[in-house]
Design a protein that fits this description.
Blueprint lengths: L3 E5 L5 H11 L17 H12 L5 E7 L2 E10 L8 E8 L8 H15 L5 E7 L3 H9 L3 E12 L2 E11 L1
Parallel strand pairs: 4-5
Antiparallel strand pairs: 1-2, 2-3, 3-4, 5-7, 6-7
Helix pairs in contact: 1-2
Length: about 170
């Protein structure tokens, strides 16, 4: 069992974050991007991390195994007055670290952070309906399926439904 440290992402993590996302995109079909499809390069990721640090309802948490990223979890919120209370949750754990409680701990810490930031009152996410482990994990924390986007994902000629999930804090 790895000794995992959880911390906020820093600008100096940008290259590792880009490398991690580009790698895990090829490990699973459940992410919205494939291997090497992460849209930011290291310089753009640094800029995004600077921007995150200036917005009170946005965060990127890293699960670190030494110098290696084991998982990343984020909450992104709009700066618009009518929707800034709703943070969109995203999470990914590298395959070799799955089944060790890292995803559970990342979500627990995000919810704790959201409860204390003074802005976030609701969390939302999209996940493929056939990603049973993820759906069960989200429901364990109180997320409910609020809707289903039929045929919203296309992979290898097959369509998949996406669950829209949410919870009030």
């Amino acid at each position: 069992m790895a000794q995992i440290i959880y911390r906020s992402a820093q600008e100096s993590d940008a290259k590792k974050i880009v490398r991690f996302y580009n790698y895990v995109g090829g490990e699973t079909s459940f992410l919205s991007f494939e291997r090497d499809e992460y849209p930011l390069n290291a310089e753009e990721q640094e800029k995004e991390l600077r921007s995150l640090a200036q917005r009170e309802a946005n965060i990127m948490l890293l699960a670190m195994d030494g110098e290696e990223i084991a998982g990343i979890a984020t909450i992104h919120s709009s700066s618009k007055i009518k929707s800034r209370h709703d943070g969109e949750l995203g999470i990914v754990v590298a395959r070799k670290y799955q089944g060790q409680g890292i995803g559970t701990e990342l979500i627990r810490q995000l919810i704790q952070w959201a409860n204390g930031n003074g802005v976030t009152k609701r969390l939302s996410l999209d996940t493929r309906a056939d990603n049973v482990k993820a759906v069960e994990l989200y429901m364990k924390f109180g997320f409910i399926v609020e809707g289903c986007r039929k045929n919203a994902a296309l992979l290898d000629g097959k369509y998949y439904d996406l669950y829209v999930m949410g919870m009030m804090l």
